[in-house]
Design goal:
The chain is mostly helical. The chain has helices spanning 35-40, 45-54, 68-78, 80-84, 86-103, 109-137. It folds into 2 domains: 1-40, no CATH class; 41-137.
Length: 138
């Protein structure tokens, strides 16, 4: 059985930005250390990158002992602008290069950059759809 996580009222889920009035978060939420950034940034490039890697043709899935989920959450918390910046892209390329080496897979910088840019694009499109959807409900 999965237990709900408890958190301080100043924290929020970095996946969906949801804050709980009862100090218990929904299952599948990730608690952020920087709540103001988490709620301001709704661009989930890390989550999108993780999904791209898990899909065809890569089929690279996060394992319990890898850093994939933590790194995806880190990218989500930093936001798309940071991921697209030189500093962010360099750090993400380091993540991908290290993970490829740990798994014994080849790594090409050009392919990695293309994949990260696709993830950023997907995340921005998803955020635009969420924004349009929330305007319709208001």
């Amino acid at each position: 059985m999965i237990k709900d996580c408890e958190f301080d009222e100043s924290l929020a889920c970095i996946r969906c930005g949801w804050k709980s009035p009862s100090r218990v978060i929904k299952r599948n939420c990730i608690v952020s250390i920087e709540p103001t950034q988490a709620t301001a940034r709704q661009c989930h490039a890390g989550t999108e990158l993780k999904q791209l890697l898990a899909g065809w043709p890569f089929r690279i899935v996060a394992t319990p002992d890898c850093k994939c989920t933590t790194r995806a959450a880190y990218m989500d918390a930093k936001g798309c602008d940071w991921c697209e910046s030189e500093e962010g892209m360099a750090e993400i390329m380091g993540f991908l290069r290290e993970s490829a080496a740990e798994r014994g897979l080849p790594f090409l910088d050009a392919a990695g950059r293309l994949l990260v840019k696709r993830a950023i694009s997907n995340a921005r499109k998803a955020e635009a759809r969420r924004a349009i959807g929330s305007q319709r409900h208001d």
